[in-house]
């Protein structure tokens, strides 16, 4: 087993499917990706090997390594307990401490339940990504969804469609493109990343007949950045960007809003997509699904996305060195 530090896994909402899929992922990746779970031992039903520190993980454990973190409440499948909210938050922060100190090589976060965090601990952030950015002291990060066939980046994320044109500024688009390019170089080993950039409007505005943002903002920005050496294509009509032949021409697609990016990747690989946060000083991946309270505790949760997230975190850590 490599001497590289393990991936630390934050347990997320203990009433969801996270702890179940952590065990399944460990079994699938045993001997390939060393990992350690941050969780309350009382919440974990499967076999574990408790460790006193991340440094005790060898990668050869017979059961999932666990670093115990005491929570205030019990865990009942499908029933989030607000008493556990602060524990969920603290485990994320602990994971960040471990990866920034070098004790862990990457952080993989299991799903949280935002309402439970707000109800139990007045959680002030929209989600994982914003909290991680705050912990890291980073003003702007980028969300990427990735699978073997496609990487997509939405410039605007969790806002109403009517609000997208106002939020889509040249500064935001430029930052997104630069952060994406830098991450593809550093964490994915792509020396000269090729970015395909979607237009905002149908048919990329069709020369202004269906909207003018492509003419007034997107195209001039892409031209300026291309002159500085970035490899950019666009603005492109989003409805022709995602078939197999088109995907072969770029390393990531940068889209203007949430569904424009997420519909194609979830169509191509619904179970195996990985959420990656770009622009952090450490590696963070996550499965691309939620807590799934409706199936929690039933033993049927699909670990495919978590397996992919752990494998990608490990590969990215290797690229970053």
Q: How would you explain this protein's 3D organization?
A:
This is 4-hydroxythreonine-4-phosphate dehydrogenase. The structure is a single chain. By secondary structure, the chain is an alpha/beta fold. It folds into 2 domains: 1-140 and 280-321, Isopropylmalate Dehydrogenase; 149-268, Isopropylmalate Dehydrogenase (3-Layer(aba) Sandwich). Helices cover 36% and strands 17% of the residues. The protein is built from 10 helices and 12 strands. It has helices at 18-29, 85-101, 114-121, 128-136, 164-167, 170-188, 213-227, 244-247, 258-268, 304-320, and strands at residues 7-10, 35-39, 48-50, 64-68, 106-109, 142-147, 150-154, 194-198, 231-236, 252-255, 274-278, 284-287. Helix 1 packs across helix 10 and helix 2 packs across helix 3. The radius of gyration is 20 Å and the shape is globular.
